[in-house]
Specification:
The chain is of the alpha/beta class. It has a single domain, classed as Glutaredoxin (3-Layer(aba) Sandwich). It has helices at about 1-15, 20-25, 40-50, 60-70, 95-105; strands at about 30-35, 55-60, 80-85, 85-90, 105-110, 130-135, 140-145. It has a seven-stranded mixed sheet with strand order 2-1-3-4-5-6-7, sandwiched between helices. Strand 6 (about 130-135) and strand 7 form a beta hairpin. The longest helix has 13 residues, at about 1-15. The termini are far apart. It comes from Noviherbaspirillum pedocola. This is DUF411 domain-containing protein. Keywords: Signal. Pfam families: DUF411 (PF04214).
């Protein structure tokens, strides 16, 4: 029975869905960013291309949102976001956000500290290795996914 359900789910994800339906069910990501930040705009575009609906708001202090959402300051970056109750800090790839929303761990969210070259929104001639951290409910972290240098 589980196998059949899994096959049905896989089949449904492969079928084309009208754009209007997709937009209505796409998770909304609320982004709090600095005005005029090009890499934040690049990350937002990455999310939209990956099927997320984004509502961006320019704020004077992204650190206030980081604190509000329980992300340690040491994990800070140039923007903070919220999706379905999870905090997102920095240039977190859309694939990792989708995994987070599917797995629903008991956690505060995901963080990519700083602004690593090669992460979404930070594309360029160089691609540095970086980690996406899972920020657990108690504030501790573990590596959620490692992206190697290429």
């Amino acid at each position: 029975m589980q196998r059949r359900t899994l096959l049905q789910a896989l089949l449904l994800t492969a079928l084309p869905v009208p754009a209007l339906t997709r937009a209505a069910t796409a998770p909304q990501v609320d982004v709090y960013k600095s005005a005029g930040c090009g890499c934040c705009e690049g990350w937002i575009e990455h999310l939209q291309t990956s099927g997320f609906t984004v509502k961006a708001q320019d704020v004077g202090d992204t650190g206030a949102y980081r604190k509000k959402f329980g992300i340690p300051e040491a994990l800070g970056s140039c923007h903070t976001a919220l999706v379905q109750g999870y905090a997102l800090e920095g240039h977190v790839p859309a694939a990792d956000i989708k995994r987070l929303l599917a797995e629903k761990p008991k956690a505060r969210g995901l963080a990519v500290p700083s602004m690593p070259m090669g992460s979404p929104g930070m594309e360029g001639p160089r691609k540095d290795p970086y980690d996406v951290f899972l920020v657990k409910a108690d504030g501790s972290t573990s590596v959620y996914r490692h992206y190697p240098q290429s």
